[in-house]
Amino acid sequence: MSDAATDHAVLQIQALTKFFGGLRAVSDLDLTIGPGELAGLIGPNGAGKTTVFNMISGLYVPSGGSIRFQGIDLAGMEPFEVTRLGIGRTFQNIRLFANLSVLDNVRIAYHPHAGYGMLDGVLRTARFHEKERDLTERAREFLAIFRLEKIQDELACNLPYGEQRRVEIARALASSPRLLLLDEPAAGMNPAEIVTLMELIHFIRDQFKLTILLIEHQMRVVMGICEQITVMDFGQVIARGTPKEIQTNPQVIEAYLGKGAAHAA
User: Fold this and answer.
1) Residues 234-247: pLDDT tens digits?
2) Pairing of strands 236-241, 228-233
3) Which of 221, 184, 187, 229 is nearest to 202 (CA)?
4) Residue pLDDT, tens place only, 17-52
């Protein structure tokens, strides 16, 4: 990415490093993502991908390097502060409130912007009831965009896996992010659900004018929707490029399939 593009980057990571005891999980990672990009971060299990997401979202404190979001340094921020800045996230393992309805799962994401204080909530004031009605209406409108309105009263735990993923993504988007981090969104999905997911990711990028960074092991998803891909192995970047370039990169082939496969290619 050029210097001019870097100046307007949504996410700029420089020399990012994370140690767990004596283990270096991420080593000197550089990554720049511009507005509206749909980028992939891939690599074998244990490559350090989710650790990168955890540092971006404030769950882990970096051991070194910097993370800047729209020019703002994220160092030392708590996860809720990162969310308020405009970074949404999903997880490898779905983290819905299983015993709440689909509607309530999405309503929760709106509460940082509820517009009433703790005292209003405790006393159940007129302002509280007015703002809660507004939140409910906004959540219903949002569910309609994702074609989830017909199941809004269902408990999250009763939904098929693919629909749970859609609800989780909808909840992440309800917080009005500018950057969306998707951690293995296709995990556990069948082929039909994967096709629907790919269409959904393209839709939300275009509809909400988002920048998206995703981790994914399903190469069908990565190669089908990502415009730029960064490949990690043992905590380090080993390749960057378009899907076509990554598919034929010997280092990538070796990381996934072994040295013999790389030589055969």
Assistant:
1) 999 999 999 999 99
2) antiparallel
3) 221
4) 999 998 999 999 999 999 999 999 999 988 999 999
Q: Which of 23, 96, 18, 81 is nearest to 54 (CA)?
A: 18
| CA separation, residue 12 to residues 42, 79, 210 (Å) | 18, 18, 16
pLDDT tens digit sequence for 124-133: 888 777 778 8
How far apart CA 101 and CA 140 sit, in angstroms, is 12
Choose among 52, 60, 70: nearest CA to 16: 52
Residues of 89-121 as b/e, b for ≥16 C-beta within 10 angstroms?
bbbeebebeeeebbbbbbbbbbeeeeebeeebe
d(CA 90, CA 96): 10
Which candidate, 55, 89, 52, 42, places its Cα nearest to that of 210? 89
Question: Are the beta carbons of 108 and 172 closer than 8 angstroms?
Answer: no
Distance CA 73, CA 71 (A): 7
Strand residue runs (E) in the chain = 11-20, 23-33, 38-42, 64-69, 72-73, 87-89, 179-183, 211-215, 228-233, 236-241
Rounded to the nearest 10 degrees, how much is the dihedral formed by the CA atoms of 251, 256, 261, 262?
A: 0
Report the alpha-carbon distance of residue 239 to residue 50 in Å, rounded. Answer: 18
Tell me which residue of 122, 197, 134 sits closest to 163, measured CA to CA: 197
Classify burial at 70, counting beta carbons within 10 Å of its beta carbon; exposed 0-12, middle 13-18, buried 19 or more.
middle
Neighbours of 46 (CB within 10 A): 13
